[in-house]
Amino acid sequence: MEPLAFDPRTRQIEKEQLALRGVYSGPLVDLWSNSMLFSNGGEHRRRRAPMSRAFAFKLIEAMRPRIRTAAAHILEQHLQAGELDLLGDFAALMPARIIADILGIPAADVPHFTELVYSVSRSLSLSYARSEIQGMEESARQLMEYVDGLLGAREAALNNEFLSSYQTMVTEAGNLSAAEILGQIVTVIIAGSDTTRGAIAMQVSLLLQHREQWDAVCADPALIPGAVSESLRYEPVVGSIPRFTLEDIEIDGYVVPRNSLLSLSTLSAMRDPGQYVDPDRFNIRRTDHPRRHLIFGLGVHRCLG
Predict the structure, then answer these.
(1) 113 CB contacts (<8 Å, ≥6 apart)?
(2) If I label 74, which of 85, 93, 229, 265 is the partner at 20 to 30 A Cα–Cα?
C-alpha cells in the first residue's frame, strides 16, 4: 500500500466517487469540492494548514477529563437498566458528543446534529444505494447550514476555544474562502464521527472474542494503549484507501487504466508479514507496531486525529 499511496501516478480522489453515483452538483458536491480531504497539492496544503494548527494535540489532551466524564455519564445512565446497546447507546454517542462539545453545540441540538453527521458520512463509501442520495444531500445541506450558523454567531465563536483558534489561523492565512472555511470544519466533524463509532464497537468485540485479553485489560489499565493499537490493526475500521490513477499502472502483470479508482487495501497492509510477526494473531501486547500507525494513513493526507 505504501508505494502507491505516494506514487505520483496516483492522487487523492476528488469528486470522482460522487460522479460514479451520478452526483455532479448539490450540497455533497459543494462540500467535497471545498474539503481538504478531497483535494491535492497546493490546494490541499492551503486548506489543511489552519486546521492542523487549530486542531492541535494540546486541545485534545486538555479534553481527556471531559471525554472520560462523558463516557462515565453514558454508562451510568444504563447501569440501572442493566443493559446497553454498545453501538447505538455508546459508540455512536461518544464521538458526536465530544465533537459537539468542541464546537460548543447546545445539548438539545446534539441528537439531530448526530443524525445529520452519520447520514452525510455515508457518502464517504461506495456501499450506499442510489435511493439514499437524496437523504444524504439534504443532511449535508442542513449540516452545513448549522455549522455556518455557529460560525456566524461571532460572540459564541469567540468564546469557543476551537472555533476561536481556527478563525484566528484562517485570518492569519488570509487565503480561504467562506465556503472553504465551512468545508474544513464539516470535514473534521464527519471524518471523526463514523470512524470512531466503528472503532469503539470493533475494539470491544475483539476483546470479548479474546476473553483472556479482555480480563487482562480490565486488570491492568496500562494495557489499554496496546489494546487500542492492536484493535485498529487487526480489524481496521477503514478497510481501504481510494486513489485516482493519472496514467496506466502495471501491477503484477495487470494494468490499471488511467483515470480509474484504485482501492488500496488497509486490511492487507495491517496483516503484512513483512511488518508484523504472526500478523493473523490478535495480541494486545504486540511490540512491532510502527511509530505512526498505518490506520491513520500516510503522507500529506495523514489523519489529523
Answers:
(1) 96, 100, 105, 143, 146
(2) 229
